[in-house]
Specification:
- This protein is mainly alpha-helical and 75 residues long.
- It is built from three helices and two strands.
- It has helices at 3-6, 15-35, 54-73; strands spanning 39-42, 47-50.
- The longest helix is centred in the middle third of the chain and has 21 residues, at 15-35.
- It is flat.
- 1% of the residues are buried.
Length: 75
C-alpha cells in the first residue's frame, strides 16, 4: 500500500507498505500495462515508456472521474 491507500503523506508511508506497493507495481501492474501496449516496460532496466495508446485511457479515466464526481454531487 502506498500513500493514497493509507491516506498518509508519501514520506510517512511505512517501509512495508512502500515495498508492497512497489512489488505489486513491478510484478503485476507494469507487465499487464505493457501487454496491452499502454506502456513499454523494460524489466531489466526498470524503465517505463508511455505509448500513444495511453491517451485513450487517460481520456477514459477523465470521463469516468467526471461521471462519478457528478453522481456523488447530485444525490
Amino acid at each position: 500500500m502506498g500513500s493514497i491507500e493509507t491516506q498518509t503523506p508519501p514520506r510517512s508511508v511505512a517501509t512495508e507498505h512502500y515495498e508492497s506497493a512497489y512489488n505489486s507495481l513491478i510484478q503485476t501492474h507494469l507487465p499487464k500495462l505493457d501487454k496491452q501496449d499502454i506502456i513499454e516496460y523494460d524489466d531489466r532496466a526498470k524503465v517505463v515508456t508511455v505509448t500513444p495508446e495511453i491517451k485513450k485511457y487517460a481520456a477514459l479515466i477523465a470521463i469516468t472521474r467526471y461521471v462519478l464526481h457528478s453522481k456523488n454531487h447530485h444525490v
